[in-house]
Amino acid sequence: MEFKKFLLMLTGDTDQTILSAAVQLCKDMDGKLFVLFVIEPNRVSRLASLTHQKVKIVYDKTEENGWQLLYLVEDEAVENGVWTSLHLEEGSALDITKRYIDTYQIDALLLKRKDESKRMFVSSTIPVIGL
Amino acid sequence: MQLKISEYLKPEAIIMEIKAKEKLAAIDELVAHMVNNKLVSNGEEFIKALAKRENLESTGIGDGIAIPHARTNAVKGLLLAFARSPKGIDFSSIDGKPSYIIFLIASPENQKSEYIMALAKLSRLLRKHPVREMLRNANDPEEIMKIIKENEE
């Protein structure tokens, strides 16, 4: 099986450490990189409650952080000659990821290895690569 | 660091009605406009950097918006430009629709963090439907500037 289209899924929990690895993998495989940041309303509400902040403030920070992550990946991808497509969505990370896999006919899903990603590993219909 | 995108957009970097009908011609027209207004010194290098990125991704982010961008030493500092296309231009947007509002962002190679921050702030601002509508209906560069200033956070 040839891997040509990769989907890197990011959420508010993702740190920057996986970005370079994702770009490098796509470069090595001569693949296209779709980068998706998902704002999860449940997570935003939970975080707002835990930190005693307004939901809007946490939402705005999450969104801005999301765009920054997307453009950081893109900047590195361009330096490495890797094709990218950036996306930001709001909703359930699991549902949106599944939709993207179908819509863009993704070959492999790239995720940060974390306990929270387990549900993706379990329910994904395509290979999942933990970075 | 608080960055206000309105501080980097000048009235002379605004084209209310761009003539170009396709994306590379639109980039050429915007850059030529910036060179004519002495905002960019090396137009050729600038276009090359923007075109390189256009070949590797779609800068059409959907909802009628395109944000061509590049880090290049053809510019002295962080710089924004704006253009509007009444009929829309195909920027290979992720939603397949033409782009009516085009924002160009550039920064020198060594200003990566400001550049990323400006892209993030602008993308966030343009996700707001009322802002997009106001920008499409604005009458002059001053109104464009005012809309951005009043709606950015």
Task: Give an account of the 3D structure.
The complex is a heterodimer of chains A (131) and B (153). Chain A contains 5 helices and 5 strands, in the order E-H-E-H-H-E-H-E-H-E. With 131 residues, chain A is of the alpha/beta class. Chain A has a 5-stranded parallel beta sheet, with helices on both faces. Chain A starts with a strand and ends with a strand. Chain A has helices at residues 17-29, 41-51, 55-79, 93-103, 118-123; strands at residues 5-11, 32-39, 84-90, 108-111, 128-130. Chain A has one domain (5-130): Rossmann fold. In chain B, helix 1 (23-36) packs antiparallel against helix 2 (43-56). In chain B, 43% of the residues are buried. Chain B has helices spanning 23-36, 43-56, 112-126, 129-137, 141-151; strands at residues 9-15, 60-62, 65-66, 69-71, 79-89, 99-107. The model of chain B has no long low-confidence stretch (mean pLDDT 93). In chain B, 41% of the residues lie in helices and 23% in strands. In chain B, a hairpin with a 2-residue loop joins strand 2 and strand 3 (65-66). Chain B has a single domain, classed as Mannitol-specific EII, Chain A, CATH 3.40.930. Chain B is built from 5 helices and 6 strands. Classes of the chains: A alpha/beta (131), B alpha/beta (153).
